[in-house]
Amino acid sequence: MMNMGGPRTQDDVAPFLRNIFRDTDIIRLPAQGILGPLIASRRVDKVKRQYMQIGGGSPIEKWTRAQGAGMARALDDTSPETGPHRYYVGFRYTAPSIFGAVEEMLRDGVDHVIAFSQYQQFSGATTGSNLNELYRAQSRLDPDGRLRWSFIDRWGTHPGLVSAFADRIDDQVRRLPSEARDMAPILFSAHSLPLSAVDRGDPYVAEVGGTVACVMDELRRRGVANPHRLTWQSAVGPVRWLGPQTEAAIKKLGASGYKSLVVVPIAFTSDHIETLFELDIEYGKVAKDAGIEQYLRAEALNDHPPFIDALAALVREHIAAGFPASAQLFLPDTGDESAATVQTRRWIAAQAQRVALDKSHAKP
Ligand SMILES: C=CC1=C(C)c2cc3[nH]c(cc4nc(cc5[nH]c(cc1n2)c(C)c5CCC(=O)O)C(CCC(=O)O)=C4C)c(C)c3C=C
Ligand SMILES: [Fe+2]
Fold this sequence. Notes:
Elements: E1 2-3, H1 13-22, H2 32-53, H3 60-78, E2 90-91, H4 98-107, E3 112-116, H5 124-141, E4 148-152, H6 159-173, E5 186-191, H7 195-200, H8 204-221, E6 228-233, H9 246-255, E7 260-265, H10 273-289, E8 294-297, H11 305-320, H12 342-362
Parallel strand pairs: 1-2, 3-4, 5-6, 5-7, 7-8
Helix pairs in contact: 1-2, 3-11, 4-5, 6-8, 6-11, 9-10
This protein binds ligand L6N33NVT and fe (ii) ion.
Ligand L6N33NVT binds at residues 4, 6, 17, 20, 26-27, 43, 47, 58, 60, 119, 123, 125-126, 191, 193-194, 197, 204, 236, 267-268, 272-274.
């Protein structure tokens, strides 16, 4: 289960930020070795204060472990023939690291590993970065290829995920006073992306749009047909980012006379500073000042049982389909740097071939 990770304690904040600003898959800076640590250290106090307001640290490891344990249990129950199933956590910017997870799996004598990105929509800055790190880890730690790999790198339109989001939104819509229930906008909010990455062909923006369309279809099937909009949050630093910004959208909705609003974090599966601090605390105040009386946020998926079942279903379907690698086409001659590096992609393709060969041997 690969994800970005998050600081557990106040002392983890500085190294977390340093690791982010060192990663050229997420951000490219001139003289990165010098400028990166500088920018990171200038953010430390502000980000520490934000984590203080949500209990001192990020809950990402807690939720990932709850999701992993539930997923493995569900798989052991429904698919004993492919078990036993175990989950490992590999974070990009904090412990438990991707390198550590590979070491642990080698020690445990694991047979087949499914690298399961916990970002449901693919971005080179998120899943791409994780896959590049995974490539480095396995080539350093497992040069002989004892571990066999397959990949789940995008799943933003999976029916189980879509239905779990619809549950969370429906729960909030039901809390609205009846006169506002059909009218309140549903504001989907995702982490923004620098426009330079959008231009390179990063698939994230389109994939987030895909999730939103599927979730709205599911809600309509359930009789919820509120107006909706997708906006972008959490731009950092002086480059140009994709808009419109969630904060500006909330202000404008308030100015247009809307009294009720349901916001939905659509690009992350568990709580983190962007839900607990930015959406709840910061934008909650923005909404209040803009005259919005009911500002409701869809709960993160966290340990929602249908979401955990969806994770298990994704793995079950991946196994049943013969461990396919991602079908996303990469355009090598267009400057498309949207995915993982060339080496990483070659490794992924080679693993898919290897798994296919192993399977053909197993058949009589
Ligand atoms: C899910 C999508 C995300 C994308 C795409 C993304 C891109 C991206 N992020 C940064 C820089 C930072 N991100 C930070 C925190 C952070 N980022 C995401 C998700 C995505 N980022 C999440 C969920 C979080 C919060 C983690 C938590 O524990 O709560 C931070 C650190 C916080 C801060 O300093 O404000 C930075 C920095 C860039 C440059 C980027 C570009 C593609
Ligand atoms: Fe980010």
